[in-house]
Amino acid sequence: MQQLTAHARSFEARCAERGEEFHRLGAGQSPQALFITCSDSRVVPSLITGAAPGDLFELRTAGNIVPEYRPEHPAGEAATIEYAVRVLGVEHIVVCGHSHCGAVGALVRGEDLTGVPAVRGWLESAAGALSRGAGADAADAVTPELAEAVQRHALAQAERLRAYPCVAEGLAAGRLSLDVWFYEVHTGAVRRHRTETGRFASL
């Protein structure tokens, strides 16, 4: 924590060297994309994409889970998505899963989460696509990368996004794109789902 604090302490001085760039941020934001990914500390969207301040509107949740759209039960995740699309007018949405994901691993291995009931309840909301009965590969469940399971999971979250009225409208009108990425934390490789092949391939 000491290193983080020291960096924050000197941040103002470093921003002063880029005064015009940061001054513009005070006038408002116009991000290029909504980037939905996991809360995992090893996943750093700005590092992966090279984004500058103001480029990405981020939504980070445990397991990059997108909850079902339920307007009768407002949620922070739904509000973030709606604000990005309808107010900020982002033109792109990226759902990015990652290798070695603890949330996905817990789901496919059926781990006992009774000691963390909030985590258990949150993950159960995404369990349908990853339960063993839904085609989870036993071999994939024990590999640390969990690549196939994570990719299936990310695709399932993208499908949930399509049920959000703001997203459905944007996609239908052609003013919004939706991509699914897979990031390997141990190599830095990023792959994108190709709808024409149904596979993940290099960007």
UniProtKB/TrEMBL annotation:
Family annotation (InterPro entries):
Carbonic_anhydrase, Carbonic_anhydrase_CS, Carbonic_anhydrase_sf
Q: Which cofactor does it need?
A: Zn(2+)
The reaction(s) annotated as catalysed by this protein in its Swiss-Prot or TrEMBL entry are: hydrogencarbonate + H(+) = CO2 + H2O
Tree of life domain? Bacteria
Q: Which UniProt keywords apply?
A: Lyase, Metal-binding, Zinc
**What is the top EC class of this enzyme, as a single word?**
lyase
Q: What EC number(s) does this enzyme carry?
A: 4.2.1.1
* Family label: Belongs to the beta-class carbonic anhydrase family.
Q: What does this protein do?
A: Catalyzes the reversible hydration of carbon dioxide to form bicarbonate.
Q: What is this protein called?
A: Carbonic anhydrase
Gene source species: Streptomyces decoyicus
